[in-house]
Write a structure and sequence with these properties.
Layout (H helix, E strand, L loop, with lengths): L3 E2 L4 E5 L2 H15 L3 E2 L2 E5 L2 H6 L3 H13 L1 E4 L7 H6 L9 H9 L2 E6 L16 E5 L9 E5 L3 E8 L5 E9 L3 E5 L4 H18 L2 E6 L7 H24 L3 E5 H10 L4 E5 L1 H15 L5 E6 L5 E5 L5 H8 L9 H18 L2 H19 L2 E2 L1 H4 L9 E2 L2 H13 L1
Parallel strand pairs: 1-3, 2-4, 2-5, 5-16, 7-14, 12-13, 12-14, 17-18
Antiparallel strand pairs: 6-7, 6-15, 8-11, 9-10, 15-16
Helix pairs in contact: 1-14, 3-5, 6-7, 11-12, 12-14
Bound molecules: NADP nicotinamide-adenine-dinucleotide phosphate and magnesium ion.
C-alpha cells in the first residue's frame, strides 16, 4: 500500500512520562507505516522546557497560529516536588495555559463512547461535549475577608475620571467579599469558538448561565451570544438544520440528565470546571475523553484530556509492563490528521483517521482493552486485559485485516 501524502505539516508537541512513551508507540505502530507524516516537531517534555527557558512552548503555540493544526502530548505542570525531581531553575507555567493564552481559545471536551461500556445515565446515547470558557470570573477574582462592621462599595473610576459607586452591603459584623470580572472581547471569542465548533461538528449548541439572578453580569454573556449568533452564524445554522438556544443553568442541568446526548454545552468558566468532571465521570473514564482547543480564528489544538499518568510511568520504570489506555492520545492524533486532511483537501487522510478510530473502537468492543476499562466492561465478549503495546498491536491487526 502506498503511504498517504500530506501537504501542510502538523504541529507536533511531544510531552512527558507515560504519555511520551505512548506517543512514540502510536506513531511507530499506527501512523508511520501508513502516512508520510509531515510534522513540525516541538519537544515540550519538561527537560527541554527547562533547557529552552520554556521558549519552546511559546514557539509551538506560534507554530499552531501559522500552520493551523497541532497535536499535543500530555505534559507535566511543575509543582514544588517536580522542581526537585527535575532540578528545575523555575516552576515553569502550565504549557496548556501558555498555549491557551496565545491562541485565545475555548476547550471542548468529549467522551469516546464504545458499546459494552455504558454511561451511568442510561439514556445518554451520544457524547455530550462541554465547551468551557477559560477566562475570568471566580478564577481571576479579588477577595477580601471583612473584619467587622463597615460599608462595602463597588467603585469604578473611568479613564476620564468619572466615578461610579454602588453599595454592596452594610456589614454589621464580619463577612466575606469578592470582586469578579470578565471582558466583552473574551466572551465574544468564547461565543465565536462555540458556534464555529458546532458548525464544524454538526451539533446543536446549548448555552447556560444565570441571567435571572445576575441581571448585568450573566445577562451580558447571554446578549453577546445572541448577538454573535444573529450576526454571524444564524444562516449557517439554519442551512445545516442546527439549533442554538440559551437556557438557565438549572434548567440545563435537568435537561442534560434527561437528554440522549449528542450536542455541545457551552458553560461559563466555573460551570464548565464543575460540570465537565460530572459529565466525564458519568460517561466512564478520563482515559476515554478527548480535548480540543479551538481559537476564534479557526486554529485547532488536539490532545488527551488526561495527564501524563505518572503512577503508571513510575511502575514502568521499575520494569512493569504498562496497561495504560492510549485511546485519548490516539484520538488526538486522528482528530488532528482528519482536520489537516479536511483543510488541505486530502480525503485519504480523513478516511485513514476515521478508519483508525473505528478499528480502535472495534478492538475494545471485541473484548480487548486496557486495565482501566476492563473493570467497567459489560459487553458480551469475554474480556482480555491487554498491555498498551498489545492493545495497539490488536488495533493494527484489525486495521490491516
Ligand atoms: P493523570 O495523569 O490524568 O492520572 C491520574 C490517574 O487517572 C492515573 O493514575 C490513572 O489511575 C488514571 N488515568 C489517567 N489517564 C489514564 C490512561 N490513559 N489510562 C489508564 N489510566 C489513566 O493525572 P495526575 O496523576 O493528576 O497528573 C500527572 C501529571 O500530568 C501531573 O504532572 C500533571 O501536571 C499532568 N497533567 C497534564 C495535563 C495535560 O497536559 N493536559 C492534564 C492533567 C494533568 P490509576 O493510577 O488508578 O490507574
Ligand atoms: Mg476541575
Amino acid at each position: 500500500m502506498e503511504k498517504i501524502q500530506m501537504k501542510t505539516p502538523l504541529v507536533e508537541m511531544d510531552g512527558d512520562e507515560m504519555t511520551r512513551i505512548i506517543w512514540a508507540q502510536i506513531k511507530e505502530q499506527l501512523l508511520l507505516p501508513f502516512v508520510e507524516l509531515k510534522t513540525v516537531y516541538f519537544d515540550l517534555g519538561l527537560p527541554n522546557r527547562e533547557a529552552t527557558g520554556d521558549r519552546v512552548t511559546e514557539q509551538a503555540a506560534r507554530a499552531i497560529q501559522e500552520y493551523g493544526v497541532g497535536v499535543k502530548c500530555a505534559t507535566i505542570t511543575p509543582n514544588a516536588q517536580r522542581v526537585e525531581e527535575y532540578g528545575l531553575s523555575q516552576m515553569w507555567k502550565s504549557p496548556n495555559g501558555t498555549i491557551r493564552a496565545i491562541l485565545d481559545g475555548t476547550v471542548f471536551r468529549a467522551p469516546i463512547m464504545v458499546e459494552g461500556i455504558s454511561p451511568v445515565v442510561k439514556n445518554w446515547e451520544a457524547p455530550i461535549t462541554i465547551a468551557r470558557h477559560a477566562y475570568g470570573d471566580v478564577y481571576k477574582a479579588v477577595e477580601y475577608r471583612v473584619p467587622g462592621p463597615g460599608k462595602a462599595e463597588l467603585v469604578f473610576t473611568g479613564e476620564d475620571g468619572r466615578v461610579e459607586r454602588q453599595t454592596i452591603f452594610d456589614f454589621q459584623g464580619p463577612g466575606v467579599l469578592q470582586g469578579q470580572h470578565n471582558r466583552d472581547a473574551s466572551i465574544r471569542s468564547f461565543a465565536r469558538s462555540c458556534f464555529q465548533y458546532a458548525v464544524d461538528t454538526r451539533q446543536e449548541l446549548w448555552f447556560s448561565a444565570k441571567d435571572t439572578i445576575s441581571k448585568v453580569y450573566d445577562h451580558t454573556f447571554k446578549d453577546i451570544f445572541q448577538e454573535i449568533y444573529q450576526k454571524e452564524f444564524q444562516e449557517k445554522f439554519q442551512e445545516l438544520g442546527l439549533r442554538y438556544f440559551y437556557t438557565l443553568i438549572d434548567d440545563a442541568v435537568a435537561r442534560i440528565i434527561r437528554s440522549k446526548g449528542g450536542f455541545i454545552w457551552a458553560c461559563k468558566n466555573y460551570d464548565g470546571d464543575v460540570m465537565s468532571d460530572m459529565v466525564s465521570t458519568a460517561f466512564g473514564s478520563l482515559a476515554m475523553m478527548t480535548s480540543v482547543l479551538v481559537s476564534p480564528d479557526g486554529k485547532y489544538e488536539y490532545e488527551a484530556a488526561h495527564g501524563t499518568v505518572t503512577r503508571h510511568y513510575y511502575r514502568y520504570q521499575r520494569g512493569e509492563t504498562p496497561s495504560t489506555n492510549p485511546m485519548a492520545t490516539l484520538f488526538a492524533w486522528t482528530g488532528a490528521l482528519a482536520k489537516r486532511g479536511e483543510m488541505d483537501g486530502i480525503p485519504a487522510l480523513v478516511d485513514f483517521s476515521q478508519k483508525l478510530e473505528r478499528c480502535a473502537l472495534e478492538t475494545i468492543e471485541s473484548g480487548c482493552m486496557t486495565g482501566d476499562l476492563a473493570g467497567l466492561w459489560e459487553g458480551a465478549a469475554p474480556v482480555r486485559r491487554a498491555s498498551t503495546q498489545e492493545f495497539l498491536a490488536a488495533v493494527r491487526t484489525r486495521f490491516e485485516g
